[in-house]
Specification:
The complex is a heterodimer.
Chain A lengths: L13 H11 L14 E8 L2 H5 L5 E9 L2 E9 L3 H5 L4 E6 L7 H7 L20 E5 L19 E6 L14 E4 H8 L4 H5 L15 H10 L15 E6 L10 H6 L4 H15 L4 E5 L1 E2 L10 H11 L4 E6 L9 E5 L5 E8 L7 E7 L4 E7 L5 E4 L4 E6 L5 E8 L8 E7 L6 E11 L5 E6 L8 E2 L18 E6 L26 E4 L3 E4 L7 E4 L2 H21 L6 H10 L22 H12 L2
Parallel strand pairs in A: 5-8, 5-9, 6-8, 9-11, 11-23, 23-24
Antiparallel strand pairs in A: 1-3, 1-4, 2-3, 6-7, 12-21, 13-20, 13-22, 14-19, 14-21, 15-16, 15-20, 17-18, 18-19, 25-26
Chain B lengths: L24 E3 L10 E2 L7 H5 L4 E7 L9 E6 L4 E6 L4 H6 L3 E6 L4 E2 L2
Parallel strand pairs in B: 2-6
Antiparallel strand pairs in B: 3-5, 3-6, 4-5
Classes of the chains: A alpha+beta, B mainly beta.
Chain lengths: ~600, ~110
């Protein structure tokens, strides 16, 4: 045996030297959640972040902060460029990233939900006795984070709204699976086939793992597989998979893109509270769209408010939405006798229909003209009428509906539908103030389109909450990045307030780069980001609140529960003493929330 | 898309052939939104659903506890005066005239907030 001299820059972190050596010997590194193939994550101390980021091959990650007069940053660099980058001017040191532990390990301490962080004498017991209900897609009941130590399921029910209907189907459709059904399936070689339900397998090029499994783990996983218990690891769980086949809206775009409809979602919430019976129950919803009145007047939102009002110890937690940076909201005022132009940008890549809704006071009357990107004025559509352009084949190319007096709030609403064949570019919506009694105010939203999102040229990033996130009694959750010392907001996390000026979201939680259960792996985790990942952290905390209250004989109505969540929120960030339109009243704090329950219960 | 961004469906599609539109033809309100008590997503034409009289999901609010109007298939009771239902477009005109109905809200598709 002898030592072979290696022509590798010796002043480098030994683990980076080893990585270079492995590459030279033809060994490839696999892509990870954060690094591409043949790329490596590094922690770098640099003199100038911009200069470092500008270097070829460097993918700058996070700027951690100022250290020893330099800047500590994370980055991904190609293995073939490590030595050059390490020796570049302004790079003081560079270390290979350590193996990351699953990041619920960061979420749970950050929101002070570890048992040790809870106040002395806490009876929250990991949410024992509380039912955590989830309305989401793809529950991996076989992941060990949802099994008891004896291997039996923690899920008391799954309702697959798309499953085969039976005489005892909830509300006449779909298939309900009991804990007994699930346990029987778990005893089989292929539990998913045995049950007739399971999360989809991963597809190359698509996000890894099912959304619902990830969300369920953040709220109530017990770490039996991943080793990292979540916020309410002792809670019971029930899951509703929204139907696709029951949707009236047809078309490839709908089937590909949507997860149930608003009515099925309300039925799902009804089902979950029925399963809970007299038990405390918190329901997590991470679904929504961009349109709607955004004033809590939809019957779905009123239905949710009613469900949590019917008996104490109930809550519904909803993700704020991820539309902050999408340019999907515009607002302004139309002067009496004057006009304003709203520019709606349809991208060249648009390959499906675009939709826009504009709401204004029922006491006002706007006129509307629609102008193409080429400057052709297609005409005006008076209040109380429709305007339509048909294609040669008779299908609707453009539809403008200008409705007076919505039945639920009395406001007027303009809806514009552009079929995908219309020209891309900047469409102009010219609003005329024909009769203005107030300030002529309006709010407009563009519907979500992941493949080619349209936007307003003069977008206003406030009021970007989801379509069902504006109810009176729901708890709506924004997202921040718990991995950075400053706990900055996630760039996508939608902003309030509601159109009628109420302060939502109420609270925020870690939702960026969250590692949680990866479906069909049994024990694995995967990383996802979104307010969908923030909402279940709050759902878990609400389970702890309800468990603490239940153990102390305190009944919490919806208003009291919301007050506890809001009043116990942490500031800095956001600034103390007020409401922020994205953080809400602050960052969720499990320890202080449980302490508030103890105080309420008295000695 | 990276895992630091919300999951979104970014699957490839072919861009359609563009078509220059002609002028808007103003017409009386059509679709479910023409009914005074019916809320539907304003920007959806619903042409196919209307032509086929295809059942649509809805939330219905009534004035009288327990009232179940004809022409709707009740699915789930939310409260005494609020329930989910399946409704055919052809039944909406009758519901609109029913004094015991406050409003009918048709379902709209939802997507994940992730």
């Amino acid at each position: 045996m002898y030592l072979e001299s290696a022509d590798i820059y010796p002043g480098m972190d030994p683990r980076l030297q080893r990585a270079v050596d492995r590459r030279r010997r033809g060994m490839r590194t696999l892509a990870t959640a954060s690094s591409d193939e043949d790329e490596i994550g590094v922690l770098v101390l640099v003199e100038d972040t911009d200069g470092f980021a500008a270097r070829g091959g460097v993918r700058l990650g996070a700027v951690i902060g100022e250290v020893d007069g330099g800047w500590l940053v994370t980055a991904r660099v190609p293995l073939g460029r490590i030595e050059a980058i390490r020796q570049a001017d302004g790079v003081r040191s560079m270390k290979a990233a350590q193996t990351l532990r699953p990041m619920l390990d960061a979420t749970v301490p950050e929101i002070r939900a570890e048992p040790a962080a809870l106040p002395a004498g806490s009876l929250a017991a990991g949410g024992a006795g509380v039912l955590v209900g989830l309305i989401d897609s793809g529950a991996d009941f076989a992941h060990r984070n949802f099994l008891r130590p004896d291997g039996s399921t923690r899920l008391v029910a799954i309702w697959d709204q798309d499953g085969p209907s039976t005489p005892d189907s909830p509300f006449g459709f779909g298939k309900r699976y009991s804990a007994g059904d699930i346990d029987l399936a778990l005893s089989q070689t292929d539990p998913y086939n045995a049950l007739g339900y399971g999360p989809p397998s991963d597809v190359p090029g698509r996000p890894k793992g099912s959304h619902g499994t990830h969300v369920m783990d953040i709220a109530a996983g017990n770490g039996g597989g991943s080793g990292i218990p979540a916020v309410a690891p002792e809670a019971d769980i029930a899951f509703v998979e929204p139907a696709l086949s029951d949707i009236a809206w047809q078309g490839e775009e709908v089937v590909d893109s949507f997860f149930g409809d608003s009515v099925q979602q309300l039925e799902a919430a009804r089902f979950l509270f029925d399963v809970a019976g007299d038990r405390p129950c918190v329901v997590n919803i991470s679904l929504g769209t961009n349109g709607g009145p955004h004033d809590g007047s939809s019957l779905v939102e009123k239905g949710i408010d009613a469900l949590v009002s019917q008996q104490p110890n109930r809550a519904v937690v909803i993700a704020a939405s991820n539309s902050f940076a999408d340019g999907i909201h515009a607002a302004g005022g139309v002067p009496a006798g004057g006009s304003v132009d709203l520019s709606w940008s349809i991208p060249e890549t648009v390959d499906s229909q675009s939709e826009l809704e504009l709401w204004y006071a029922g006491s006002d009357r706007f006129g509307l003209e629609l102008i193409t990107p080429a400057g052709d004025n297609l005409g005006s559509v008076p209040l109380g009428s429709n305007g339509r352009v048909r294609a040669d084949d008779g299908t609707t190319l453009i539809l403008v509906s200008h409705r007076a007096a919505d039945p639920n709030n009395g406001d007027n609403v303009l809806g514009i539908f552009l079929e995908e064949r219309v020209p891309a570019g900047a469409w102009t919506i010219r609003l005329h103030g024909e009769h203005i009694e107030g300030d002529g105010g309006y709010h407009a939203w563009i519907e979500r389109n992941d493949r080619s999102q349209a936007s307003f040229a003069d977008a206003d990033d406030s009021h970007t909450l989801g379509s069902i996130s504006c109810g009176q009694l729901s708890v709506v959750v924004g997202s921040y990045d718990a991995h950075k010392p400053a706990k900055p907001l996630s760039f996508f996390s939608s902003a309030g307030p509601t159109r009628d000026g109420r302060e939502k979201p109420e609270i925020s939680a870690p939702g960026q780069a969250v590692f949680a259960a990866h479906s069909r792996t049994g024990t694995g985790v995967t990383r996802k980001s979104g307010t969908s990942m923030a909402a279940p952290a709050v759902t878990g905390v609400v389970a702890l609140i309800l468990a603490e209250a239940g153990a102390r004989g305190v009944a919490l109505d919806a208003a009291s529960l919301r007050r506890i969540v809001k009043d116990s929120a942490r500031s800095d960030p956001p600034p103390a003493g007020g409401w922020d339109n994205r953080y809400g009243f602050g960052r969720i704090d499990a320890a202080d929330a449980v302490r508030a329950v103890q105080k309420l219960a008295g000695p | 898309m990276t895992p630091d961004e919300p999951d979104r469906d970014a699957s490839d599609r072919h861009a359609p052939n563009r078509e220059a539109p002609g002028p808007l033809e103003v017409e009386p309100p059509s679709g479910p939104g023409r009914y005074r008590k019916v809320r539907a997503r304003a920007s959806r034409p619903c042409d196919e659903e209307l032509a086929a009289d295809r059942p649509m999901t809805a939330v219905v609010e009534v004035t009288e506890p327990g009232y179940r109007p004809p022409g709707v298939l009740v699915r789930a009771a939310i409260t005494d005066t609020l329930f989910t239902a399946t409704v055919r477009p052809s039944a909406l005109a009758t519901l609109d005239e029913d004094p015991r109905i406050v409003s009918v809200e048709l379902g709209s598709p939802l997507d994940q907030s992730e």
